Amino acid sequence: MSVTVAGVLAQVDLADSASPRLDAELLLAHVLNRPRSFLRTWPEQVLDSAEVRRFDELLARRRAGEPVAYLLGRQGFWTLDLEVSSATLIPRADTETLIEVVLGLPLVEQARVLDLGTGTGAIALALAQERPSWQVTGCDRVAEAVELARGNAERHGLANARFLLSDWFGAVDPSARFDLIVSNPPYIAEGDLHLQQGDVRFEPASALVSGPDGLDDIRLIVEQAPVHLAESGWLFLEHGWDQAETVAELLSRRGFAAVRSHRDLGGHLRITGGTWHA
């Protein structure tokens, strides 16, 4: 009996997924090496045994909770299609708020930008694409992440973005001064119950967890950033939905001015930053 696109999708059981139909279509399109639109245009397409077997394997991994982005090896962010791996955090739509905010800042035309903990390079590459005159540096302490980001930059032809291996500011040129520093650092508290739920179970803990209250890395960045900022440079950070007030206080105490927070797609205060005057 022939197995068709429509038939195999009708039998999919991904009850634990928040988007079972979407997940199934993305996985099947991946197996067939076709766009999702193909599934609706050609529902009578017959799958061979190898395609059915591969689809079943991916479904089993998804039922076990493995993120679709890891199964596909890619994730969309801003206007970019990025390769991802289990060595990095999966880029999320809420982080696009950070892109929107910093693109509206009064920066010089040839701004120098530093993206700390770049992962896939999502933030750095989105900014490099939107502002070709900017020089964007992304850094990460995980070598595999740095190579992944470099590969994403090459695939998108973004020569104004470069990436280096660095534990936060550790390997950043101490004489360099940046007009903008951005980061989506780890900000989940140790032992948080959310770490045992959903996609984050499969993501690297080093990209998620930061001390007893989730703020250890943010404290470090806020403390050290002024040394690397140009006069009137900006620092903007992504943080947890309930951390905006604390992050704003950290920035103000360190001497940042014009400190403000911005809401994400869900209405939560997710991005906070300010400007530095030596």
Biggest sheet character = 7 strands, mixed
**From the helix content, strand content and strand pairing, which structural class follows?**
alpha/beta
Helical element count?
10
Radius of gyration: 21 Å
Q: What is the arithmetic mean of pLDDT? A: 93
Strand portion, in percent?
Answer: 15-25%
Task: Please describe what this structure looks like.
With 278 residues, the chain is an alpha/beta fold. Helix content is 36%, strand content 21%. The chain has helices at residues 5-10, 20-32, 36-41, 49-63, 68-72, 96-103, 122-130, 143-155, 216-228, 244-254; strands spanning 3-4, 46-47, 74-77, 80-83, 112-116, 135-140, 161-165, 178-183, 229-238, 257-263, 269-276. α8 (143-155) links the parallel β6 (135-140) and β7. The longest helix is centred in the first third of the chain and has 15 residues, at 49-63. It is elongated and about 70 Å long. The N and C termini lie far apart (74 Å).
